[in-house]
Specification:
340 residues, Isopropylmalate Dehydrogenase, 2 domains, 12 helices, homodimer, 11-stranded mixed β-sheet, 49% helix, alpha/beta
């Protein structure tokens, strides 16, 4: 089986300079992948070089969705944007997945418009991976839905568990719900009702996970509404940046501290590698009839390449089918319960 | 003027061992303070030693509110708890402030029951200080209110700005609202309406602050509902703990890395001091007719002592009067607008 990934080469802060280079890296690394580079041909070619024998093609798209463009306008006016054409390729079956570092809102809206939702899922959710003390955690939603019903949060749990189940070959990954205390009585009404639904869902539900529990690895999948998830994710990013800048300041203070920095360099490098956000790049938009990955806008080649790898992994492991199956089971279970 | 602080000596994970020692430190350090140590006398005395000439007294209280006790039961059944008696001392005017490391929910509920709310404020809010790249930020609410109306968020803004204005002698501290994007159209309905209220409030409102903006110092006061605030705060704590444990692991890997740790020790110490959560201990419960500080339950002596210092600062700078005045102005302003 060959995995074909459609790449929106125009998205992101750096455009083709990053996306095309990452695509080359991606097809060189894997025997079973093929890349369709979508975007303005003359902007893509300078970064291509000699592509003899490489499993990639360029598909011209004349327009670009800008980073601050309204999603509604992008759908209506830019039918030949690199983002839209890449998603059309997934829709038509020419590609198995789409990866973009472009405007998140537009990617969300166009994906939904072009690919439609999986049956039984009301809203797409953004799911990303965060490092934990003992490994990593999948968190969703991270910003697609600012208001969620308990049913939406249940659907997020099902999708997240299906994703981790498929990719990490786990039978029943643990699922938690982000809350402000460990006890059942804590939290707002939506969260309490969602917890009740999750308890009865057949998922391996472990209950409430507090903010610090995210990084303690309290659950393999954590669900939350997009507002809370987005704030927690960005606060974490901001905190890491602050700590990094403090460390740089402290190590740069004088000759002695600079010497210390030199001695500590290998340790600091190891440490940085462990928490390098580039290794966690590639949030998936779950709930669509197709695989769509959103890369960080500021991604570099290594980072964007990780998003491409993640997309290929999702295709190989049959995530979509697994989600669809699990949602259908859930619907059957509910119908069963209602008929009893 | 002497500032009298009533200390709930029985609260927190370590009880009198920490609270009494911190109280001794506190009265030794300041000429203008007096401490009332509230709790079970025979548990307090072993940690007191010679108190000749020190400005402190012990007030016996026979009961203790436990960490997992229901706030409603604590109000009803424990009228002689150290927490309740300390708050009664504020109510009667014998003390100017109360500091407790005990059960947050109970402290919240008993404070509200004993002290009542300031006129014009509907709900108390928990306000804490977080470090930023350029200084620090006051954030509220951090968990007292899981659901907030736009009016509540406006009140938080007024209280936060009054607090910073009084303590840091700032005329018009900047106020932001925690949101998932910088643009006005972002966020849920409550946040958008709250932003409109804040814009018209006369506060120095700087608009939306994203999660990472918290630590970038985008505003001096940031308001949010207690659910989001609590998750962001605890996620940050969890992340710092994870990074610290990773650093320890990396520096402990082998002989070479242990040598590096030794060389880097002074730098790491400096760094740790800058982000030491103990320096930021002491969240205030704003909106009450009295000054109440909540210390972290796991606080050590240094940490609890910081909370005592913060309480004394709040009394000295007349925070309560400033909040009351600002709320009254706001009410006048609104009445004015409505009559136009």
């Amino acid at each position: 089986m060959t995995v074909t990934v459609a790449i929106d080469c125009m998205g992101g802060d750096h455009g083709p300079e990053v996306t095309v280079r990452a695509a080359l890296e991606f097809v060189r690394k894997h025997d079973d992948v093929r890349a369709i580079l979508v975007g303005i041909e003359e902007k893509i070619h300078p970064f291509l070089g000699n592509v003899d024998g490489l499993s990639l093609v360029v598909r011209h798209a004349s327009e670009v969705v800008t980073m601050d463009e309204s999603p509604a306008l992008a759908i209506r006016n830019k039918k030949d944007s690199s983002m839209r054409v890449a998603l059309d390729l997934v829709k038509s079956g020419e590609a198995d997945a789409c990866v973009s570092a472009g405007n998140t809102g537009a990617l969300m809206a166009i994906s939904r418009f072009v690919l439609k939702m999986l049956p039984g899922i009301d809203r797409p959710a953004i799911c990303a991976i965060l490092p934990t003390v003992s490994g990593h955690v999948h968190v969703l939603d991270l910003g697609a839905n600012v208001d969620c019903s308990p049913e939406h949060l249940l659907q997020f749990g099902i999708m997240g568990a299906s994703l981790v189940g498929a990719i990490e070959h786990k039978d029943r990954p643990t699922v938690g719900i982000l809350n402000i205390g460990e006890e059942d009585i804590k939290g707002n009404d939506v969260v309490k009702r969602a917890a009740d639904l999750l308890k009865d869902s057949g998922l391996n539900f472990v209950g409430n996970v507090e903010g610090d529990g995210l990084f303690k690895g309290d659950a393999e999948v954590v669900v939350c509404d997009g507002f809370v998830g987005n704030v927690a994710l960005k606060a974490s990013e901001g905190l890491v940046q602050m700590l990094a800048s403090f460390l740089r300041q402290e190590f740069g203070r004088n000759l002695l501290t600079r010497f210390a920095a030199l001695v500590a360099l290998p340790v600091v490098r190891h440490f940085k590698h462990r928490v390098d956000p580039r290794r966690y790049n590639g949030a998936c938009l779950l709930g669509l009839r197709g695989i769509v990955l959103k890369s960080h806008g500021s991604a570099d080649v290594l980072s964007f390449d990780n998003a491409l790898d993640r997309a290929a992994d999702m295709v190989r492991s049959g995530v979509l089918e697994r989600i669809a199956l699990r949602v259908a089971q859930q619907a059957g279970q509910q119908a069963n319960q209602e008929s009893i």
